[in-house]
C-alpha cells in the first residue's frame, strides 16, 4: 500500500490526497505535524525521507517521493486510470499551467516557512501577515480567473468536465484563502469550480478536517 506522510492542513498534502482519492488508490496516512514541538518535519527520521523537511512525502514501496506536483505526475504515470491529465499535448500543457500558477506562483509566497519568517525574523504582526497572504492570493487568483474565463476549454472543472491536476491544486488553495478571510467575490469561475469539486466524494474525503491526523 502507498504511504502518505502528510499534515492535514498542508495544501500540498491536500493536493495529493485529492489525486489519490480521484484515482481510487488506498493509502496509509502518516501524520507529520508541522507545528507541534517545533515541527515533526525536522525530525531526523523524517529528514532522511525528505531532506527538504517538507510534506508531503509519498512512499511507493521503498521509494520516497517528494514535491506534490511530482507525486501527482507519478500517480498519473503509474496509475493512468482515471486520468488527471487530458490526452492532447496542448490540453495537457494548459492543465499543467493552471496547476503551476497555483503551486509555483501563489503557494510558495504563503507557505508556512515564509509566514514564520515574516513573523519571527521580520517581526511582522498578525494583521500585516494576513495582508501579505491576501495580497498574493488575490494577485494569483486574478490571473487564474482570467485564464479560466478566457478559455473555451474551461468546463465544469478547470479543464473540461472531469477533474484534473489543476482542480487538485485549486481546492486546497481556496481553502487556505478562506482561512485568511480573502475576499473571493471577484472570482466567479473559481468559486463555481470549487462548488463542482466539493460535490465529489474524492474532494470531500481529502478535506483537512476529516483527516486522521486532524485530531
If strands are numbered along the chain, what order do they take across the biggest sheet? Answer: 2-1-3-4
Q: Report the β-strand fraction as a percent range.
A: 5-15%
Pattern of helices and strands: EHEHEEHHHHHHH
Q: Between the first and last Cα atoms, what is the distance in angstroms?
A: 23 Å
Question: Which CATH architecture of the largest domain would you pick?
Answer: Up-down Bundle
What would you call the structural class?
alpha+beta
CATH structural fold name of the largest domain? Glutathione S-transferase Yfyf (Class Pi), Chain A, domain 2
Mean pLDDT score, rounded? 96
The count of strands amounts to: 4
Our count of helices gives 9
Relative helix content: 40-55%
- The CATH class of the largest domain turns out to be Mainly Alpha
Q: Low-confidence parts, pLDDT < 50 over ≥5 residues?
A: none
Bulk shape: globular
Biggest pleated-sheet summary: 4 strands, mixed
What Rg do the Cα atoms give?
17 Å
How many domains is the backbone divided into?
2
Amino acid at each position: 500500500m502507498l504511504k502518505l506522510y502528510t499534515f492535514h492542513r498542508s495544501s500540498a498534502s491536500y493536493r495529493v490526497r485529492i489525486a489519490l482519492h480521484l484515482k481510487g488508490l488506498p493509502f496509509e496516512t502518516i501524520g507529520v505535524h508541522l507545528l507541534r514541538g517545533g515541527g515533526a518535519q525536522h525530525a531526523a527520521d523524517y529528514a532522511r525521507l525528505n531532506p527538504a523537511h517538507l510534506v508531503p512525502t509519498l512512499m511507493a514501496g521503498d521509494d520516497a517521493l517528494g514535491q506534490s506536483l511530482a507525486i501527482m505526475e507519478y500517480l498519473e504515470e503509474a496509475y493512468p486510470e482515471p486520468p488527471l491529465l487530458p490526452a492532447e499535448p496542448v490540453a495537457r500543457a494548459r492543465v499543467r499551467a493552471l496547476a503551476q500558477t497555483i503551486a509555483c506562483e501563489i503557494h510558495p509566497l504563503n507557505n508556512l516557512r515564509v509566514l514564520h519568517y515574516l513573523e519571527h525574523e521580520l517581526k511582522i504582526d498578525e494583521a500585516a501577515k494576513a495582508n501579505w497572504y491576501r495580497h498574493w492570493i488575490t494577485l494569483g487568483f486574478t490571473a487564474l480567473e482570467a485564464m479560466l474565463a478566457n478559455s473555451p476549454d474551461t468546463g465544469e472543472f478547470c479543464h473540461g468536465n472531469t477533474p484534473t491536476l489543476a482542480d487538485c491544486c485549486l481546492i486546497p488553495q481556496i481553502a487556505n484563502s478562506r482561512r485568511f478571510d480573502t475576499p473571493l467575490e471577484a472570482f466567479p469561475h473559481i468559486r463555481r469550480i470549487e462548488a463542482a469539486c466539493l460535490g465529489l466524494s474524492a474532494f470531500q474525503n481529502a478535506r483537512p478536517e476529516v483527516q486522521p491526523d486532524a485530531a
